[in-house]
Structure of Ran guanine nucleotide release factor:
Amino acid sequence: MATEFKHTELFGGAITANLPSGFADVSTIRQVPDNQEVYLEANGFTSLIIDLTERVTQFSTDKEALEYHLADIIAEDETKQIVSVFENVQLSNFPPPPPDPGAARRPHAPTNTDIHLTLIRLVEQSTDIVITLNVPHIPNETNPEDPVAGDDEAVRKQLNERTEKAVLMKEAWEMVVGSVEVRDWSLFGTE
């Protein structure tokens, strides 16, 4: 089942992106800071956040800047397992970056969350655009590396659903990030 997308204006139309059509604008139900756009999937768990932040300059590499933004998202006392920190994504709507100088829980509350994070660094605008897709996993989802996962039909079904969700979210992530376009650069105080 393919995800459908809708061309969406963000930050008053200054930025556009193709977002999954099943995601709703959180600002219609609660206040969202002016430097953020927040969208929530219909089930209320998976979220997409586009955050405009001041460009962090104290790091010598983009990877370090990305890790800084990730640490800002994750609470210090939370366990984190980073599978892939840095992955190049083609951003056809942006100029290429300058060279990098050196390379109490509810019963159905998520127990862990996959975080897809992209950092777009706008040097001339002194801005970092942090795009985050948070995909939570609820209790009883099966670890794909569990050797007994294939022994029970219900467990296999859960595993298949989790795998399908992961594939759909990865495809959605690639579509969102690949479609981000700045339409009005004055958003950043520059023209």
Observations:
- Residues 83-87, 102-107, 146-150 have pLDDT under 50 and may be disordered.
- The beta strands are 5-10, 15-20, 23-25, 36-41, 47-54, 112-122, 127-137, 181-182.
